[in-house]
Amino acid sequence: MRLIAWFSKPNTFFSHRGLMVLRAGAWSMVAKGCAAANLFVAVPFVLNSLGPLQFGAWATLVSLVTFSGFLDFGLGNGTMNLVAAAHGRNEPAEVKAVIAQGQRTLTRVALYLSGLLLVAFPFVSWHSLIGLPASMSRPSRLAAGIVLASIMLAVPLNLASRVQLGLGRGDRAFRWQAAGQLLALGLVTTLAKLHASLPVLTAAAISAPLVTAIANTLQLRRDIADISTEKAVERNDLGRTIRREGLLFFVLQLAAALAFSADLPLISLLRGAEDAGRYAIAQRLFGAISIGLSLVWVPLWPVYRQALAAHSKDWVLRTLRRSAMAATSVAACLGLVFAVGFPQIVGLWVHRALNLSPWMLAGFAVWVVIEALGTSIATFLNAASIMRLQIVLAVAFGILCISLKAAVAANYGIAPLPWATVITYATVSLIPTLVLLRKLIRTALTKTY
């Protein structure tokens, strides 16, 4: 009876906002499923084609594409927040103005960054950075150039997905992402069977999502044209507001990238590409849990913002509590399964034994649990633009975490690295946030959006 009553309550998670999250989450699940298929199916083909050494370099290069998420200097997330707030207030003219300003700003950012890269690119020893011998300097440089060019293109193209999430149309963006992952899977596996080179396989892995991102951007333009407005909005402060909000997100993203995305480049530099490849397999397996939970976090963020702008306080509080409890429970169960069944799962996946320390696997399992709790809170705080505390904690965490990982990797190998993340994140970021959470929630509910 209690379960029936819960479903029958108005304004529960399954209200129109909850259904918006579920619809976007469902398509996000399809996109992530395609990404997981791409990850799990492509890895053994590339590993067998390139060998352990070049596979580690390939995994490192492909992982660098995630840096495009913060090279927009947070402007994508800043634009999404402003779009979601204007949409929640039912102000379509401001929605169109924010989108137009965000597109202009990110295009300029991509052009500036491209100029800097063209100047610096010839002077970098790329084969050393990805752990390959000097005899592979030319293919290493070519592969790195392909990755960097893709990152520059992705900076403005990624805005379409953020804006559509802000408009409550995330399902459209995720459809294109799914198509991009399937296209990449087909290209990579086919070329790996043909024993293509490192640059060709790198290009195949990262070019297909760019093609579908272009299609997504074109669809956004049609979506904007369909938004009817009675009058245009002229706000000279929009660009400044987007830059200010975006800069805060950029600092937060940069600190997270230092802590979370630097593992493989750091291992390649300090331990070699082969260790990076072994670590990448375990990291990607447990990372599937985080990818699964992002099915909720990504669409929930702008819906939080819409609800805050519409003063739906009860829905916000109830959703925050339930999402945190559900996420930590799911992460704990799946982390335990992956840690205990790691040999069997990896054997089925890459068709070879991978002897990794149980201590490292336990570290990954613990990490996914505390990451789930922290992300559930951070999603709410990001939507509320409560950034000051997050930035202070994230910067301290990023500096301490990368320093500890460098020392650990140099002296003790790769096994303790997940525990370095667990210890620094729990002590520097998560515990202080939990202590101050009640005050932060009061601040979020009393702000004007």
Automatic annotation (TrEMBL):
<feature type="transmembrane region" description="Helical">
    <location>
        <begin position="358"/>
        <end position="384"/>
    </location>
</feature>
<feature type="transmembrane region" description="Helical">
    <location>
        <begin position="142"/>
        <end position="161"/>
    </location>
</feature>
<protein>
    <recommendedName>
        <fullName>Membrane protein involved in the export of O-antigen and teichoic acid</fullName>
    </recommendedName>
</protein>
<feature type="transmembrane region" description="Helical">
    <location>
        <begin position="55"/>
        <end position="75"/>
    </location>
</feature>
<feature type="transmembrane region" description="Helical">
    <location>
        <begin position="247"/>
        <end position="269"/>
    </location>
</feature>
<feature type="transmembrane region" description="Helical">
    <location>
        <begin position="281"/>
        <end position="304"/>
    </location>
</feature>
<feature type="transmembrane region" description="Helical">
    <location>
        <begin position="324"/>
        <end position="346"/>
    </location>
</feature>
<dbReference type="Pfam" id="PF01943">
    <property type="entry name" value="Polysacc_synt"/>
</dbReference>
<dbReference type="InterPro" id="IPR050833">
    <property type="entry name" value="Poly_Biosynth_Transport"/>
</dbReference>
<feature type="transmembrane region" description="Helical">
    <location>
        <begin position="391"/>
        <end position="413"/>
    </location>
</feature>
<dbReference type="InterPro" id="IPR002797">
    <property type="entry name" value="Polysacc_synth"/>
</dbReference>
<keyword id="KW-1133">Transmembrane helix</keyword>
<feature type="transmembrane region" description="Helical">
    <location>
        <begin position="21"/>
        <end position="43"/>
    </location>
</feature>
<feature type="transmembrane region" description="Helical">
    <location>
        <begin position="173"/>
        <end position="192"/>
    </location>
</feature>
<feature type="transmembrane region" description="Helical">
    <location>
        <begin position="419"/>
        <end position="437"/>
    </location>
</feature>
<keyword id="KW-0472">Membrane</keyword>
<keyword id="KW-0812">Transmembrane</keyword>
<feature type="transmembrane region" description="Helical">
    <location>
        <begin position="109"/>
        <end position="130"/>
    </location>
</feature>
<feature type="transmembrane region" description="Helical">
    <location>
        <begin position="198"/>
        <end position="218"/>
    </location>
</feature>
<keyword id="KW-1003">Cell membrane</keyword>
